[in-house]
Amino acid sequence: MAQGAEVQGRPLEQYREYLLLLARLQLDPRLQAKLDPSDVVQQTLLKAHEKKDQFRGQSEGERAAWLRAILANSLADAVRKFGREHGDQERSLEQALEASSASLDAWLTDSGSSPSQQAARHDRLLQLAEALGQLPPDQRGAVELRHLQGLPVAAISSQMGRSVPAVAGLLRRGLKRLRELLEE
Question: What average pLDDT score do residues 119-136 get?
């Protein structure tokens, strides 16, 4: 990849799955029927590339925060484009993205906070997002709803239109595959 597509040495493309995960978590399911989260992420990466000279951070965490802010703006633009009548969906998308990112980070948090530990944790976060992106859509959706949004299995069953045992099977297979992917 050309150097122009890099910020602080890491290609922006490496953040695609991470941003896609956040977009899927934050985009209202009714709006997802009209707007593909991958389109929002593509727009985000294009904006980031155009504004790469504006990034002033020094760490991977700062870069991720910068990209989340651009994603929040892209999502807000998409929400406005589709004319949401109530402002609840647009309620501080940036804060909602931060909360989702914190949920992901909580999966990987350890007690250390040295710069090298933070960098390692950030790398694991990107690996987790990449691994989630490789799961079949139903498994990924069930895992995200259960473990990132904290929904009970019964609510996931209702939302996905599947039986509780079917959702439990999706979760079991999804988590097993996720572990395999993360071990690779």
Answer: 85
